[in-house]
């Protein structure tokens, strides 16, 4: 197994300072991770840096769906829906432990005002959705009667309920997917480092970008990396990176379009408070859109909003008014749930890097199609797109990069794309075999069935590595948070095998304890910090510093706020 730890990062920082790369990628979200893997699989010498932790932005704060985008049919974006459905199937092949088929349900009421759209139109849309999926479809949609709908959501308002429409899409753990992609890229030769920021660009005699100036955010060291080509995959920070170039293109060079950040907020609540056995699409009370109600990791996630965003891109938050807007819609359809703000375990926001017409009436009208744009000095930027199609975006991005490397540097032709066939780290076990693997793990590691299922569904074949770590000390077998299946061995694994360097890396993005545990995560933070201190050789001043930073990140990014939208 290729190590992917803090030691790997130290070695990679040295290599960044001393080697030249064919391709340098800025941004460690799902888009950058996909690009790094795609390039590495084609034999391109590639490096990637991220200014914070991997997936610290949008790639850990999505709705966590793998889907074609049912609502995109309203905009007649059939090609994009087809791509999404095919990529959904691809992810279920290459990452079966992180791509779970899930039923989605749309309620139908006799009162037309309670429906998202006319039932006949919705039924026709689902027929088209099935047709566009073709052989990659999970199962055909079906009509449910009233009783069947209520069995899937006993708190659903039964007054006027006529039934429901059921179809299938996919569910994932977004930040874990990003980490697995990066680990696979690392195994295939990519040089990767988090907490490494780009300070500027290096130019050659012809004014072409020939590398980057970097800052190690951990040590404070400055370094330079030579690279033939640079791709900016920083999402909503795309323009900030482009402006580091003194000859950056103006926004009107984005093929007549502009970067338009859109904020989407989500809430996590207890599965006991909102009882659903499938994902539900619940119409908004304030606009023509719906909220997803999705069972996830033993909790229920609700979201998302879709609105223009002009605030701090590093720490968007769920505004109290937005939270209440969502809760009002959910309570209107699940009246006995009576959800209040005190029921919200965590509230979080992500920013979509949409590329579209600045004059479009709302962000819901802006396409989710990605855009590749080149500066005159060779910088390539990519933005737009969505989680489900990250692999296809990466394939297109590296197609362009390889073409430019061939034209400008006479590099030999690389192999074609293989990313649709290569299993991600932890993914050798087929989904239908995961349950039996979890049973075997529970028996061999002497752990309970729920814990084994949790480990297998989040780490795949690597669950056995975590189970082995759990045998090192009794403390490593203890739950991180009472009532949740996460264990302290996952903290050790995150440091040794997933380049986690801080409390937030472990608790927010590797284990998802921040989203799932609420205030309980702050109570366990000192104990986790003590474990990290041993693994990462922290001095005595680092623990209190880490605790302060962690509490600040939790309160600013995973709690409701009173800031403006």
In a few lines, what is going on in this structure?
This protein is of the alpha/beta class and 565 residues long.
CATH architecture of the largest domain: 2-Layer Sandwich
CATH class of the largest domain: Alpha Beta
The helix fraction, in percent, is 25-40%
β-strand percent reads: 15-25%
What's the name of the CATH homologous superfamily of the largest domain? D-Amino Acid Oxidase, subunit A, domain 2
Please count the helical segments.
17
Largest sheet: 10 strands, mixed
Q: Average pLDDT across residues? A: 93
Based on Cα principal axes, name the global outline: globular
Terminal-residue CA separation: 45 Å
CATH topology (fold) name of the largest domain: D-Amino Acid Oxidase, Chain A, domain 2
| Number of beta strands | 20
Keywords:
FAD/NAD(P)-binding domain; 8-stranded mixed β-sheet; 10-stranded mixed β-sheet; alpha/beta; 3 domains; globular; D-Amino Acid Oxidase, Chain A, domain 2; 565 residues; Helicase, Ruva Protein, domain 3
Description of the molecule:
The protein is of the alpha/beta class. It is globular, with a radius of gyration of 23 Å. Helix 10 crosses helix 11 (449-459), helix 11 (449-459) packs across helix 12 and helix 13 crosses helix 14. It has 17 helices and 20 strands. It has helices spanning 6-18, 30-41, 78-94, 119-133, 146-152, 174-187, 238-242, 320-333, 390-409, 431-445, 449-459, 463-470, 489-497, 503-510, 513-517, 520-536, 542-557; strands at 20-26, 46-49, 65-66, 100-109, 142-145, 161-171, 191-193, 196-203, 209-216, 222-232, 258-270, 279-283, 290-296, 299-303, 307-308, 318-319, 344-356, 371-374, 380-383, 560-561. The chain starts with 5 loop residues before the first helix and ends with a strand. The longest helix is centred in the last third of the chain and has 20 residues, at 390-409. It folds into three domains: 6-59 and 175-249 and 375-409, 3-Layer(bba) Sandwich (FAD/NAD(P)-binding domain), CATH 3.50.50.60; 100-171 and 260-357, D-Amino Acid Oxidase, subunit A, domain 2 (D-Amino Acid Oxidase, Chain A, domain 2); 431-561, Alpha-glycerophosphate oxidase, cap domain (Helicase, Ruva Protein, domain 3, Orthogonal Bundle). Strands 3, 4, 5, 6, 11, 12, 13, 14, 15 and 17 form a ten-stranded mixed beta sheet that branches. A hairpin with a 5-residue loop joins strand 18 and strand 19 (380-383).
């Amino acid at each position: 197994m290729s190590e992917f730890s803090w030691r790997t990062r130290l070695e990679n920082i040295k290599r960044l300072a001393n080697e030249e790369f064919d391709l340098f990628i800025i941004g460690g979200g799902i888009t950058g991770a996909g690009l790094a893997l795609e390039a590495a699989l084609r034999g391109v010498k590639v490096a990637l840096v991220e200014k914070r932790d991997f997936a610290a932005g949008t790639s850990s704060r999505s709705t966590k769906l793998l889907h074609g985008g049912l609502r995109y049919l309203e905009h007649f974006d059939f090609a994009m829906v087809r791509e999404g459905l095919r990529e959904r199937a691809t992810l279920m092949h290459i990452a079966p432990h992180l791509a779970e088929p899930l039923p989605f349900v749309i309620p139908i009421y006799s009162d037309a005002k309670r429906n998202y759209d006319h039932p006949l139109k919705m039924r026709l849309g689902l027929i088209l959705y099935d047709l566009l999926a073709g052989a990659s479809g999970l199962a055909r949609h079906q009509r449910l009667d009233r009783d069947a709908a209520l069995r899937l959501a006993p708190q659903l308002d039964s007054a006027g309920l006529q039934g429901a429409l059921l179809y299938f899409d996919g569910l994932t753990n977004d930040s874990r997917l990003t980490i697995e992609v990066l680990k696979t890229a690392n195994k295939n030769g990519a040089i990767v480092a988090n907490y490494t920021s780009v300070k500027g660009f290096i130019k050659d005699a012809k004014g072409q970008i020939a590398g980057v100036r970097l800052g190690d955010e951990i040590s404070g060291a400055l370094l330079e990396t030579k690279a033939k080509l640079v791709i900016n995959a920083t999402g909503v920070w795309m323009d900030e990176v482009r402006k580091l170039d003194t000859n950056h293109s103006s926004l009107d060079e984005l093929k007549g379009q502009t970067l338009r950040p859109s904020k989407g907020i989500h809430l996590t609540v207890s599965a006991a408070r909102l009882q659903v056995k499938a994902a539900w699409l619940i119409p908004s009370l304030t606009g023509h859109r719906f909220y997803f109600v999705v069972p996830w990791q033993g909790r229920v996630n609700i979201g998302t909003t879709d609105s223009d965003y002009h605030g701090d891109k590093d720490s968007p938050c769920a505004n109290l008014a937005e939270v209440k807007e969502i809760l009002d819609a959910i309570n209107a359809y699940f009246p006995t749930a009576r959800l209040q703000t005190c029921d919200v375990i965590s509230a979080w926001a992500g920013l979509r890097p949409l590329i579209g017409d600045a004059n479009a009436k709302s962000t819901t009208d802006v396409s989710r199609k990605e855009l590749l744009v080149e500066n005159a000095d060779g910088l390539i930027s990519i933005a737009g797109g969505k989680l489900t199609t990250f692999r296809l975006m990466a394939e297109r991005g590296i197609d362009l990069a390889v073409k430019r490397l061939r034209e400008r540097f006479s590099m030999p032709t690389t192999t074609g794309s293989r990313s649709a066939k290569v299993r991600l780290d932890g993914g050798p076990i087929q989904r239908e075999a995961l349950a039996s693997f979890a049973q075997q793990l529970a028996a061999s590691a002497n752990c309970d069935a729920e814990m084994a299922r949790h480990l297998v569904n989040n780490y795949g074949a690597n669950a056995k590595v975590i189970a082995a770590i759990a045998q090192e000390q009794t403390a490593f077998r203890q739950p991180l948070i009472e009532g949740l299946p996460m264990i302290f061995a996952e903290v050790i694994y995150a440091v040794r095998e997933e380049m986690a360097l801080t409390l937030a890396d472990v608790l927010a993005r590797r284990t998802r304890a921040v989203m799932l545990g609420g205030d309980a995560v702050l109570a366990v933070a000192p104990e986790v910090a003590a474990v990290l201190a041993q693994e990462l050789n922290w001095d005595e001043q680092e623990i209190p510093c880490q605790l302060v930073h962690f509490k600040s990140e939790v309160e600013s990014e995973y709690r409701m706020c009173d800031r403006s939208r």
